Amino acid sequence: MNSRYRVSLDNHTYISQFIFSNFSDVPELCYLLFAIVLLMFLTSLTGNTLIGIVIQSTPALHTPMYFFLVNLSFLEIGYTCTVVPKMLQSLVSENREISRLGCATQMFFFTLFGISECCLLASMAFDRYVAICTPLRYATRMSWSMCTQLAGVSWSIGTLVALGQTNYIFSLNFCGPTKINHLFCDILPVIALACGDTSHNEMAVYAVAFLFIASPFLLIIASYGFILADVLAMSSPEGQRKALSTCSSHLIVVTLFYGSGSITYLRPKASHSPILDKLLALFYTVVTSMLNPIIYSLRNKEVKAALQKTLGKIMCSVQDKN
Ligand SMILES: *[C@@H]1O[C@H](CO)[C@@H](O)[C@H](O)[C@H]1NC(C)=O
After folding, report:
1. Average pLDDT over residues 179-184
2. For the whole prediction, is pTM greater than 0.90?
3. Which has the closest alpha carbon to 163: 80, 97, 105?
4. DSSP annotation of 143
5. 123 lines ligand 1 (CB under 6 A)
């Protein structure tokens, strides 16, 4: 137990610094994971930035669906940048410490981006529902102000939940071990370090998280329920195929996000093994954010064409300069 970071205040100790654990029992694994995660991190940054640039610079893609997609890419960049750099550092370096403030900041942004993403995915599902089920009123119902409001509400909910959760957790008393059995300051591994009986804190955190993760999910399910009913009622197979193709990318992204999220967070406690947990967390944060731009650009002719055009322009301007 490292006593350097403990300061005695009154008669309880105050922890000013935490330490991440890594895969120290299997050191070779660390370098391999470092290389893989670094590669995925860079792919994710490039992909999400590129999607943003391509959509902004292509007037044909200035529609609600792509407005939300740019916002989602922006979220993904924030999300990975909050967690991955420090994670990479702790994988290979001896310096795996994080200050209490740093840990709180990381948790705040991680929660903000995570909850906002749930809400944004629900807004995107609502957009598809309006487009497919009420096509004639789409332009009036999904106006620009509606889009910015939906995105704004998503960000606000994320910010409020993150503020509440982080504030609540860091007002707990930390006096015991400083070693976080995880690769970043995720909520449950940090609560596990608080002193005393934390089971009701865990329950409160679970309840809030469940409310703000499950409600958007229910909205998504409802939207797709209506979409499916509408598509099944269509008489032409061509119309059915077209309707489904506009929401397939979003449906894949939702499945990935919620699927990997449930595997990481909803497994029964008895089955938790720290190594598996850390591996899952590692991939959960980078894999989904790396795949979003790939899914949207590969499955979408409009984006693919715009991407080729933008890349062509970049190549040309580079050649002109030489
Ligand atoms: C995302 O949506 C918010 C709220 O409408 C807006 O202020 C912000 O500029 C958007 N971000 C991007 C990158 O489009």
Report:
1. 85
2. no
3. 105
4. -
5. no
